[in-house]
């Protein structure tokens, strides 16, 4: 720096140097006959200047390149994707860049939202190939708008064994809008409040019912009490009390009768199950009956043998009766032979008589 | 004949308005000149590289550690407050996105620009104004050198690169701190974190963010240097011009911030 400025070379202090004047090198300044020129500002020396400047520039370049690369990675520029198209009646709340989630994990990004020819919103989603395996042909997609927070796109795959979702598949998204339920809820609440107002009106049925209830309560607290309330007349209540007293007397008699029956049952028990009762005696009788039955069984065995023998005799008789037929035939044949022999002897014997009849 | 006071006041207001508009034009003109010179490799390479490197190292290097540490501490406090508050209200899934949007997109570029203007560009402009008052420009001109190339361009580029470097380094550091605060020292949440960051930095938002950083750097650099280039050479003139340049700078920064907010959220 210099403190001395020659009047010939320096402009006046009041004049503002224009930019064009600064850019143009005045010929006067280059003339050698200028006696003294201001000192040129010197650049201060910085140790390791080149290395430091290069390091700063390299740091800036590295930061910029790293930021660009990271943003490209973060936006999924380096991963292969497949396209999924979700069709919705209303794409309100859906933003480009929002996630499609499956089981809470982001598996896709909304890349574009367009209005289709049929008036439906078409949400174009890029799903990375490595995450596309969670989407199947049977997957269901929902669009949920909450009271607080952004809209959520969710995928549900119930059957993971189904075929995978093809590229450029188009699916209908099911919309669940919590905000849309508010008008319905408000209408229902309004109707409820109106009904409650009608019920609470002075001339409403509820007021009459409450008045009747008060009358009933008064009568309950009255002399007749609950019986007077139920029967209506005090005389009927007195009759009912008499009936109750008579019932009590009847029940006392029934108690006495029950005591008699109990003693009778005790006696019968002694007669039947006592030491000399029917049951022990019957037990003894059954014990004595057992040998008798054994003897009867033996007797019956012998009778069976006799019957078997009689059956054999009868069989023999049947066979003998069967042989009598041929024996009779033989006897008759022998008799006829004897008859013929006697006839022959009679004819040959001198005492034979002429048996021939002669006619006179 | 006495001068009419009302006509004098009107001419004064008109003169002030003309000067105000001329100041804006000078900023735009200087920006265009610097753009043309910056696109010409001969302006900052070769024999002119040492001057460029000197300004870059003088401006950027001293403030880089301090700004990074201060930004990291403030970011850590804000991250902690936002995550704890979001957790208490059951909205922790939105805390990370809010942190990225508030800190990285909005606060850090603005803080970097303000810090660079206070620590670098305003002192640079004061230095340039002093050089001009002391005849340094004429000395360079007398040697056939261009003050715009030798004195102004290195400072403009150094100021803009400083703002960009501060914003980039602090942004990356804030993202790292946000990840560590939310997920801890594990890589398990990296995919979800990246997905959130990717959702925030859509192409439009990224473009607006880049433009905002560059424009903030240009504003905090060009406006003070333009004032230093065009202020009067009288003693004390720079103090008034510096205030005016700070006012212009704040107006431009507010305009850039509002425009970026409109671009991002409307």
Descriptors for this entry?
heterodimer, A: 7 helices, 7 strands, 51% helix, 14% strand, B: 266 residues, mainly alpha, globular
What would you note in describing this structure?
The complex is a heterodimer of chains A (360) and B (266). With 360 residues, chain A is α/β, with parallel strands linked by helices. Among the domains of chain A are: 82-173; 183-220, no CATH class; 224-298. Chain A is 51% helix and 14% strand. The longest helix of chain A is centred in the last third of the chain and has 71 residues, at 278-348. Chain A is elongated and about 215 Å long. Chain B is mainly alpha-helical and 266 residues long. Chain B has one domain (66-265). In chain B, helix 2 (49-88) packs parallel to helix 5, helix 3 (95-133) crosses helix 6 and helix 3 runs parallel beside helix 7 (203-230). The longest helix of chain B is centred in the N-terminal third of the chain and has 40 residues, at 49-88. Chain B starts with a helix and ends with a helix. At the A-B interface, helix 1 and helix 2 of A face helix 1, helix 2, helix 3, helix 4 and helix 5 of B.
